[in-house]
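Protocol step 4 of 5: obtain the predicted structure for the target chain.
Materials: sequence only (see below). No template structures provided, no constraints applied. The aim of this step is simply to have a reference model before the mutagenesis design in step 5. Sequence pasted as it appears in the construct record:
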Amino acid sequence: MSALSNYLENKLIDQIFRGQAYSFPGTLYFALFTATPSDTGGGTEVSTTGTNYARKSVVASLANFAATSVPGGIAVSAGTDAVTSNNASIVFNAPTGGTNWGTITAVGVFDAATAGNLLVWGTLTTPKTVNNGDAAPSFSTGAFVFTLDT
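Step 4 output (structure tokens):
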């Protein structure tokens, strides 16, 4: 499941229908949650205190996200399914500091490395428990899938 936040929905409506410019972020920041957010935000992001956790930045580009017409494609989208995915692995830091991260239930995409606005969120198909000393959590190529039209 993936969804746009209310924040982004409002910005898109204002841009498309109301002529109010919205500056799309050039870099997206992926976040992991132990309590799932909703369209209004909220949720519980993994703690940054003593855990080595930080949001993972990915530049918004044709190279980094697949065209809707071809999985893994880097051309401008021309498909009809309104689906994109990551063209390269998204790898977070490995957990350290003696603190477990907990069970990751969702992922969010923000417009800033800290704080900022939630743009997109979705639940994980299979929640993942991440403990101190575990390998770095990641989304392999094509594993982060976002569908705009369902």
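Step 4 remarks: DSSP finds one helix and ten strands in the chain. Helices lie at 6-18.
Proceed to step 5.
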